[in-house]
Structure formats: structure tokens, C-alpha cells
Amino acid sequence: QQQQQQVSMITARARRMHKAEPPKIWTKGHVYDAVNNPVVGSCVCQCPPEQGFGKCFNVLQSQVPVLPTNDSCPIAVQKTFPPPSQFCPAVGTPMQCLPSQEGMNLCPPNKTVNTLNCSRVPGTKELYTYGCIQLITGKWAGTAFSKSGRQYSKTCLWQPTQCTYNPFYPP
Do you find a cis peptide bond into 48, omega within 30 degrees of 0? Predict the structure, then answer.
């Protein structure tokens, strides 16, 4: 019970601190104004390739003259967000290779970076691996989940509230 009280106190303090500051706005060309240009919702975007976490972006009234009526964040709004490469980690991919490929860089050249040439795994006789990192390029991931847990094939999900702190989708 004491631990629950401590967690409640920390949560209450975080909420007070969050409300004391103006919301973070990441979009270009739009200025936050609590009266004339308030936050009217937010877009929750998932890191590619469907990593299960990402970034929440507050959306101002000037960005969406007509509020979305579905769960999809408007494409025009998404185009104002920074690219996922500014917030999302690269994804490492270990792969198996042949002993005859030892020392070779086997990663595809356009979308990955080599982290390890083909080499024998220490302590084994015939297991060889190499490593690549997939570069985060382009848009946010094409799959996201709504609060009800339904899966959507949308780039970012619209929610009619301002971003709140969430360790998987921080504002």
C-alpha cells in the first residue's frame, strides 16, 4: 500500500508538471496559442517497421480546420511531422551466412548498414553470421493500434485529445 501511495504521488506530480507547461508542438509553420490556436487533438505514429512504439504529436486547430471523423490522422498533418528517423531506433538484423562467405559484407546496399561482416560465431565450428541495421527512412509505420486494440493499416492514428505521457508514445 505504501508503494501504491508513492506511485500515486509521483503520478500526480507528473500530471501537475505536464499541465503547467504548454504542449509540445513539432509541426512546422504553426504556432501554439491557447486561445486562438489550441491543441484540438493528436496523432499517434508508430516507428517503422511496426515496432510497437513511436511518437505522439499534438495537432493545432490551424492544421485541421475540419476535425477528422475517423481514426486516421490527416495526411496533410502527417507531412508536417519530422521523419521517424529523428525519434525511432534502427532495427538490427542478425543473419546466418556460409563459411565460404567469411569476411564478406552481405548486407543489401540501399536500405541497410553493415555492422558485422560474415564471421564464425565463437565457440562453434560451423555457425557463421553477419549483421545489418535497417535504416529508418521515409514515413511512419503502416500499422497502428487504436485504444480498443483494433489494428489499422494507417500511418498514424488520430485521437481527439492532446498527447499525454506514455512511455511507448511520448509527446
Answer: no
Q: Strand 39-46: give its sheet, edge to edge.
A: 54-60, 39-46, 156-159
Sign of the four-CA dihedral 51, 56, 59, 63 = negative
Q: State the virtual CA torsion across 17, 22, 27, 33 in degrees, nearest 10.
A: 170
Distance CA 65, CA 95 (A): 48
Tens of pLDDT, residues 21-47 = 555 665 555 566 666 678 888 888 888
- Whether residue 141 contacts residue 49, with contact meaning beta carbons closer than 8 Å, is answered with yes
Confidence grade of residue 13 (pLDDT, cut at 50, 70, 90): very low
d(CA 71, CA 61): 17
With CA atoms as reference, report the closest residue to 129 among 164, 101, 161: 101
Dihedral angle, C-alpha 64, 68, 73, 75, nearest 10 °: -60
